[in-house]
Amino acid sequence: MLRTIDVICSLLGLVVGFPVLFVLIVIGFFDTGSPIFRQKRVGRDKRPFILVKFRTMHKDTASVASHLASASSITKFGHFLRRTKLDELPQLWNVLKGEMSLVGPRPGLFNQKELTIARDKYSVFDVRPGITGLAQVKGIDMSTPELLAKTDAAMIRMMNIKNYFTYIIQTLIGKGAGDRVNKG
User: Residue 69: pLDDT above 60?
Assistant: First the structure.
């Protein structure tokens, strides 16, 4: 049932949101020269997939979790995209392809060993990763791997249609702080 909702919502989002996506791509091209960001992430059953997002950091930024990246790596337009969560829109393509869900644990990087171990312990990799979820609306990011894995596991146990839409609505109205970056 939730997969059907994922397909319908992601397809609708891509079609209806195409003008916004196009404008953001054009602005992103002028901002960084490369508006789309692709990165290998850990998916369901720990299978790799290529996550797509709007680029919010300079092209030469190291491939690390956001909390390890320097705040100076984020462009002015990138700050806007992150604050409004518009940087996540291209992930609707990942949802449509079946690599992600609208709601689920945020996909980590393969070099985040501590997070992968914690998520393994709580069987978080049994589900598709998502664009948003309980951890995101509570402001829990990848800088606290054990807490994040426990929160993801709790979300998975409590997942139903009501919670699914609650997390989406809370994300759309701006609940949650988004990924932290290193201020230093």
Answer: no
Indicate the range of 62-71, 104-113, 114-123 predicted with least confidence.
Answer: 62-71
Sequential DSSP letters for 22-37:
HHHHHHHHHHHS--EE
Whether 112 and 55 have beta carbons less than 8 Å apart is answered as: no
Residue type at 69 in one-letter notation: A
Residue 100 lies in a domain: yes
List the domain range (segments joined by +) for residue 135. Answer: 2-172
pTM across the whole model: 0.88
159-169: pLDDT as tens digits: 999 999 999 99
- If one counts the domains in the chain, the total is 1
Of 141 and 102, more confident: 102
Q: What are phi and psi of 105, to 5 degrees?
A: -65, 135
Q: Is residue 66 part of a domain?
A: yes
The string over 53-87, giving b where at least 16 C-beta atoms fall within 10 Å of a residue's C-beta and e elsewhere, is bbbbbbeebeeebbeebeeebbbebbebbbeebbb
Residue 135 within any structural domain of the chain: yes
pLDDT > 80? residue 63: no
The alpha carbon dihedral of 90, 95, 99, 104 has a sign of positive
